[in-house]
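Subject: design request, 123 residues
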């Protein structure tokens, strides 16, 4: 199993960024997927979940209305569209595969995750 995130970078407050996660080594289209993040010196924060078909989506209150999780099962790719970003969105962002269905703010809930992509929101 391999999860490879990309798309991070430096963005100004109020700007947008789109993260991608290329998945391989498992049947991507049959699995819930999650985005989680970890800011410097802080614990893991769950961001969003999407079910296998992209029909059921959950967001953390901190990103609801600003971030959009989506997936392309034909391309084995997970996305996170980040709009109206704030300084508090600065973190290392990971895509992760939950052991069961829903994710959460603990690494114990996941069996695989990528190396992360850094998002820095600053003017």
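Subject: RE: design request

Done. Sequence follows.
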């Amino acid at each position: 199993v391999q999860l490879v995130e990309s798309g991070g970078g430096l963005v100004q407050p109020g700007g947008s960024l789109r993260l991608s996660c290329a998945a391989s080594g498992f049947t991507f289209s049959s699995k819930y997927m999650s985005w989680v993040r970890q800011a410097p010196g802080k614990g893991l924060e769950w961001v969003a979940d999407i079910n296998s078909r992209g029909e059921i989506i959950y967001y953390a209150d901190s990103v609801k209305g600003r971030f959009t999780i989506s997936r392309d099962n034909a391309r084995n790719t997970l996305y996170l569209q980040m709009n109206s970003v704030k300084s508090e969105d600065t973190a290392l962002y990971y895509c992760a595969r939950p052991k069961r269905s829903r994710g959460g703010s603990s690494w114990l809930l996941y069996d695989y995750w990528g190396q992360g992509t850094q998002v820095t929101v600053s003017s």
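Residues 44 and 106 are 6 Å apart (CA to CA).
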